[in-house]
Amino acid sequence: SLRATLDGAAVIAGADETILTCARRHGVHIPTLCELHDIDHTPGTCRVCLVEIRMPGQERTQIVTACTTPMQEGIEVMTRSKQVREMQRLQVELLLADHDQDCATCTRHGNCELQDVAQFVGLRSNRFFDHDRVAARPIDFSSPALIRDMTKCVRCQRCIAICRDGQGVDALVVAGTGQETSVGLRYGLSQAESTCVTCGQCVLVCPTGALGERDETERVIDYLNDPEVITVFQFAPALRVGFGEEFGLPSGTNVEGQIIAALRRLRADIVLDTNFAADVVIMEEGTELLRRLSEARRPTFTSCCPAWINFAEEHYPDILPLLSSTKSPQQVLGTIAKTYLPERMGIDPARIRVISLMPCTAKKDEAVRPQFIHDGVPEVDVVLTTREFARLLKREGIDLRALAPSAFDNPYMSEYSGAGAIFGTTGGVMEAAVRTMFYVVNGRELETIELQQLRGFEGVRTAQVELGGAIGSVRVAMCHGLKPTRQIVEAVRAGTAEFDFIEVMACPGGCVDGGGTLRSKKTYLRDALKRRETLFGIDRTRKARQSHNNAQVQALYRDYLEHPYSEKAHHLLHTYYTD
Ligand code: HC0
Ligand code: SF4
Questions:
Q1: For strand 300-301 and strand 501-505, is the pairing parallel, antiparallel, or unpaired?
Q2: Where in the chain is the domain with CATH 3.30.70.20?
Q3: Which part of the chain is CATH 3.40.50.1780?
Q4: What CATH number was assigned to the domain covering residues 2-95?
């Protein structure tokens, strides 16, 4: 360790500490913009973290960036000298020279790291603003899921880092030089043409409004106010444990009842649960898997995460036959809500619009896949991310905390089992599938319902599961995050990994930390474990803990689909993939 001075106070610094980390450890705030500790990203490009230093024995001081300069024995660091404050302010003013100035229309207003630093340095005017430079920067509207607005980019390169090092997708690069430097897609492609899989992890780390989802709140307000339209809402397993944070509740609070109440306040006609469809997926996928095992076809990959599907189609088309053909719960719900439900309820299916609330950006992409649009009618009409749903409630003047919890009341498609509830975390689909496959094979329930061996948090986890009967024991793997996924896919292709069933969730943590979840400033994925624990807690409170014991699912098969994997089920609930 070293002795140094920080703003006049004696401090002890670690041997390989930077000025920034040492200052943070001592509670001294230095403004930063490009740096993001959680992903170990310190490119030193924004130059907002300037400090003044004096080396031992020297008269003169120098201005350096705190994030890249190491502490040294005897160094004096000044974070608030007049020169520092003036240079920081100038630096932020330069950053704003070609940045869109219209904060009032930006979705990041009030939750923007650039606004924060501008306030911190006391910037009150912007002498260098150059409208033509802003106008020359591109906005990419090509993707149904993600919008890239380079008029708001501060070139921090966090998105490049997460896409390359975190996800191993590597779709983004630094483009151009000098004043024209910007972030772009590799080979100058558009978002839609590129190898981007729309997982949205880049959105979670972007400090400004440069990256975001395509905002479709207006379409939902249109539907809600159209008397001809019957609005059918569904919301994802993970939404209920991450949404309260937007309204100041602690992370992991279960706000299922408040979400239902909010939807009723919005005058939603029918409120359904994606968890119900997750149970249906287990019936289909479990049956499909047992069939494939009896034909010695292995491995099977899960197919409910659309960013994973995009990744497989884009990067590993040869493995597409290994993917389960079962549609995702979102699409299963949309399909049943436009077939079975109107038949039961005696309503005109043509008037129904299905609106999904998802912690996911890729679900927008999934909903517009040609496979899921029949004669011009989509199974799911609109997908709102968690962020958009929060925006919608704020636009409609609804405060989640002020609402008394309400409950589902649809008698056909809103009940769910504990197995359906845990879909939102990595390993959840696997655990749900094992609970039902064990029952199908043995005619009795698993004694230990909670499968701890599937519940770790490493990027890739493997386990041996005893299914008994003719199947015996199966080898399973679960991965979350696309970098670990790439490892396992390559091992399967090389023949060095033998698995029967592999669950993939593109987002690290699974949907609880999906790319459509709320973004906090200067953090990445700190809430996953709390949200996940709440999902495990919900599982314990359910009357039925296995998908096959969901009474509404049983009724669906009895009254409509006949049995899992029936011809009708196959026609409605299964799909195909294309490279
Ligand atoms: Fe997920 Fe899903 S669990 S992908 O992460 O399978 O978005 O929460 O809705 O469809 O159910 C997201 C979450 C879902 C789907 C479910 C699956
Ligand atoms: Fe969407 Fe969940 Fe897949 Fe992330 S893990 S891309 S949130 S489905």
A1: parallel
A2: 137-213
A3: 218-573
A4: 3.10.20.740
- Give the separation between CA 140 and CA 148, rounded to whole angstroms: 5
The class (CATH top level) of 218-573 is: alpha beta
Q: For residue 428, give the ligand 1 atom closest to its CA.
A: 3
Per-residue pLDDT tens for 105-147? Answer: 999 999 999 999 999 999 999 999 999 999 999 999 999 999 9
The candidate with the shortest Cα–Cα distance to 195, out of 53, 69, 310, 340, is 310
Interatomic CA distance for residues 113 and 400, integer angstroms: 25
Cα separation of the two ends of the chain = 55
Return residue ranges of the chain for CATH 3.10.20.740: 2-95
DSSP-derived letter for residue 497 is: -
Is the pLDDT score of 30 beyond 80?
A: yes
DSSP state of 404: P
Pocket-forming residues, ligand 2, beta carbon under 6 Å: 199, 305-307, 359-360, 362-363, 505-507, 510-511, 514-515
- H or E element that contains 384: strand 382-385
- Residue 397's CB is within 10 A of a number of other CB atoms, namely 7
Give the model confidence (pLDDT) of 389-422 as tens digits.
Answer: 999 999 999 999 999 999 999 999 999 999 999 9
Residue 496 Cα to ligand 2 middle (Å): 27
Q: Which fold has domain 137-213?
A: Alpha-Beta Plaits (3.30.70)
Rounded Cα distance, 402 and 262, in Å = 10
Dihedral sign from CA coordinates of 342, 346, 350, 352: negative
Strand 460-468: give its sheet, edge to edge.
300-301, 501-505, 472-480, 460-468
ipTM: 0.93
Q: Quick one: which atom of ligand 1 is closest to the CA of 281?
A: 6
